[in-house]
Structure formats: structure tokens, C-alpha cells
Amino acid sequence: MNHTPQTSGGLIIGSSGPVPGVALHRARYDPSGAMIVERSLPLVEPSYVALDARHGMLHTVLEEDIGRVASVPLDDALALGEPVAEASSGGALPCHVAVHPDAPYVFVANYGDGVLSVFPTSPSGRIAATGPSQAIAHPPGSHAHMAAISPDGRFVLCTDLGADRVHVYAFDPVEGRLDPHGTARVPDGRGPRHLVFHPSGRHAYLINELSCTLIVCAWDAASGRLEPGAELPARRDAANPTANSSAAVRVSPDGAHVYSTDRGDDTIAVHATVAGGAALEPVEVVSCGGVWPRDIALTPDGRLLFCANQRSGTVTVFRRDPDTGRLTPAAEPLAVPAPSSVLPF
Q: What per-residue confidence (pLDDT) applies to 239?
């Protein structure tokens, strides 16, 4: 395996919470993982971000009762520019945004009322409307938590924490429209939150917020069918009655390992993929180094993992062993008010 040394890079940090200093932050990290904030852009509750790398444009949801989404450019120095577009998110408490890899569209999941929204973007990459071009309302009690785009871009999957379902929509890139295609149901009380695809495109991993479990899913790209399979604990001690809620799930760029967070235990679970990603085996569970790990993300080369610890106001960083997947603390934590998402680039 090639152990090429990692280069430095940029890190976007979203934040959300009733504390001073909530903003969208642009940081830099060096090969050791040491971080420094270079620019902060005051925004209201910029809880989650996604990058349109083709246009150097960030999109962030503003997680308020009357939700909004904003486009923020990265200039040539990779600094944050002023927002160039802002729109209604089409729902309440938007918590996730995703950028289509090929078509000029952005998707937003609104947690408060379960609405999944579609936004066209301009040739420069910014949101090109004052509101969504399509807003899909799910049944009462739904909580849309993520818009996950299939690897081939043909489908958008919406995790519904309130209904214990993953809604699958076929995406028409010409019309920019989502059409109902199918639904995958998980056992009651699981609370599906986030989903990530294995690089092979044949499997996906679903983190359940309420049950603190991972479900390994089969994905048929041709038919657009998601089939939930084996369910595994995502906590160190699944029988412990302490109040917990799982949050983030990521797969390493090489597809060898899956990482997920647990809020309450304040841990990161590591699983190894086996059988080409069709199954998971536990490797270890480690402390996140903070409190309430809402998000994690790996660097593009898979050598470092960053963790946004919302309630301790820290971003921690770990060195990842590419062979075993194990994590070891790297540089000192970065103090950031209520970090809720991390995006290395």
C-alpha cells in the first residue's frame, strides 16, 4: 500500500447552537493535523455545508425554524467570500445540503417538517432562485435528515428519521425534478439519520440516530433499489441505558473502513468492510476527544479524520492507519464555537 505523505489542506467548519461566535469558518490544516482558523463569516446557524468543487462554491443550510440556504464562494486564496445568494430552504430547520456531481442542482433536507427541496444553480454555481424549484412534503411526523445522491447521480435518497424509512427518488437532470421511485423501510424506532455509499457503488451504510446502530444495505444501481440488511451496534456497550444518539457515518476513500459517531458516549466507532463492502466487522471504539460529536470527515487522502464536537466547542483530529483503520489522536484540538460539521478539501 502506498503511504504517500499527506499534504496540507483546507477545512470548512459549520456551527450551530445558542452560543456566541456561531459562524462559517475556514481553517487550514498541516500534515500533522494542526489547525488554524483563517476566516470566519458570521451567518445564522450554518450547521451543514457542501462544496461544489467545479465552481469553487460552498452551499450551507441556515438551520432556523424558517429555513434558508446560502451560497458562499471560495476565492483564489481559498478564503470565504460574502454570500452571493440566499434562498428559502422550503421548510423548517434545514440540516443537510448536497450538491449533484454533474447537474446544476442542490438538494436540501428540512428536518423540522420533513420537506426535501431542490434548487437550480447558475453557471457560476450559486443558487439561482429565491426558493426551491421543487419541495417534496413527506407524511406528518417525518424528519428528513439527509439527501444522499447515488454514485451515478440518477437517484436521490432521503433518510426519514421520523418515519423509519429511506425514500428513493429518481432524478431527471434535464427537468431538475425528483420523482418517487421507492422506499426502504427499517425496523421501527431506528431513526435513520445519514447514509454513505461504499466506493464500489454496490453497498451503503445507514446510521440510525435513535437505536445507535449501523445497517448494511445493498444498493442496486440499475433498478435504484435499496435493501437494508444486517444491523450492528455503533456503540461500545449497546446494553448501557445511558441516553445516546448516533450522528455521522463516513467511509474511507479506499472503501476499507466505516466510521460513525455516538453522542452521549462521545465516541467514534471503527468498522472494517469485508466481502467487498457487503459486511462490516468491528475494529475499535475510541473517545472523540470532546463532547457531542455531531460530524466527522476524512481528508481526501484518507490519512486524517476530523471530528466536530458541538457541545465542547472543539474540532479534534485523528491519524488514521490505512491498513487497520485504527485512529490515534493527532494534533491539538481547535476551539470553535459549537462546531456541527466539518469538510476537508
A: 76
> In a 3-state reduction of DSSP, which class is residue 144?
strand
What's the mean pLDDT in 138-143?
A: 97
Cα 189 to Cα 135, 210, 242, 292, 327, distances in angstroms: 26, 7, 16, 21, 30
* Count of C-beta atoms within a 10 Å radius of residue 223: 11
Q: Pick one of 1.10.150.20, 3.20.20.110, 2.130.10.10, 1.10.3720.10 as the CATH number of 43-185.
A: 2.130.10.10
- Three cell numbers, residue 88: 428559502
Quick check: helix, strand or coil at residue 317?
Answer: strand
Give residues with Cβ within 8 angstroms of 241, minimum separation 6.
none
The DSSP code for 218 is: E
Question: Could you give the CA distance from residue 159 to residue 208 in angstroms, rounded to a whole number?
Answer: 10
Cβ neighbour number for residue 62 with a 10 Å cutoff: 24
The 8 Å CB, 24+ separation contacts for 37-43 are 37/13, 37/334, 37/336, 38/79, 39/79, 39/80, 40/80, 41/72, 41/80, 41/82, 41/83, 43/70, 43/83
Cβ neighbors of 174 (< 8 A, separation 6 or more) are none
Interatomic CA distance for residues 47 and 88, integer angstroms: 15
Judge contact between 247 and 193, C-beta under 8 A.
Answer: yes
Angle at 287 between CA 329 and CA 279, to 5 degrees: 100
pLDDT at res. 78: 64
Contact 28, 12 (CB under 8 A): no
Q: CA-to-CA distance for 175 and 193, rounded, in angstroms?
A: 28
CB 209, CB 195: distance < 8 Å: no
Strand 267-274 versus strand 257-263 pairing type: antiparallel
What's at 308, amino acid-wise?
A
Q: What residue spans define the domains of the chain? A: 43-185
Whole-model pTM?
A: 0.96
